[in-house]
Amino acid sequence: MDAAGKHSEIALEVDGRQRTLRVDNRMTLLDALRERLGVTAPKKGCDHGQCGSCTVLLDGRRATTCLTFAAAHDGARIVTAAGLADGDRLHPVQQAFLDQDGFQCGYCTPGQICSAVGMLEEVKAGNPSFVTDDLGGEAELSDAEIRERMSGNLCRCAAYPNIVAAIRQAAR
Predict the structure, then answer these.
(1) pLDDT tens by residue, 36-59
(2) Which of 17, 157, 162 is nearest to 80 (CA)?
(3) Residues 6+ apart with CB under 8 A from 87
(4) CA dihedral 63, 44, 143, 61 (to 10 degrees)
(5) Cβ atoms of residues 132 and 152 within 8 Å
(6) Residue 83 carries which DSSP code?
(7) Cβ neighbours of residue 158 under 8 Å, at least 6 residues apart?
(8) What is the mean pLDDT of the segment spanning 81-110?
(9) What is the Cα–Cα distance from 42 to 109, expressed in whole angstroms?
(10) What pLDDT is recorded for position 62?
(11) Which residues of 121-136 are buried (b: 16+ CB within 10 A; e: fewer)?
């Protein structure tokens, strides 16, 4: 932080690459990624945390980057949809979105994919959702369970049936 307390120098690992930058303490993580680092996978949709287009994996958990300050995440590990692939080999969720035609215009797709990856990890960890029947057991990944867990990610093209099918495929 500078002497006036208005700027901070932060280090981030973004898609496997160490990055250092100086940010205004009021700058969102989304703006730091897009405007300062040129990372364009997370999209600016609503800028109010309502659409999920800016979702990334932040230290392994899904997060809407438009609602968090970059300065609060010094040392964080960020994975965007662009960083999920292993070279030319797509992540299983990315492949499932292609196989199931889980996108139309594609604007929300990076956030949908990151959210789906994070959601599947939450299921694997045994974290229940609002619609989970057995809170003590393993959540059955029904369509209703997928829709509830993905409800923070909106698709203006309404590709929801294909998104659910893609997540179901990736979960196998």
Answers:
(1) 999 999 999 999 999 999 999 999
(2) 17
(3) none
(4) -10
(5) no
(6) G
(7) none
(8) 96
(9) 9
(10) 97
(11) ebbeeeebbeebeeee
Q: What is the mean pLDDT of residues 69-87?
A: 97
CA angle in degrees (0–180, nearest 5) for 169-77-8: 145
pLDDT at position 138, please?
66
Whether 41 and 14 have beta carbons less than 8 Å apart is answered as: no
Task: Please tell me the chain's helix, strand, coil percentages from 3-state DSSP, rounded to the nearest 5.
Answer: 35, 20, 45
What beta strand segments (E) does 15-67 contain?
A: 17-24, 55-58, 61-64
114-151 pLDDT, tens per residue? Answer: 999 999 999 999 888 888 877 666 667 899 999 999 99
Sheet of 7-14: strand order equals: 17-24, 7-14, 77-79, 55-58, 61-64
Return the structure tokens found at 26.
């009021």
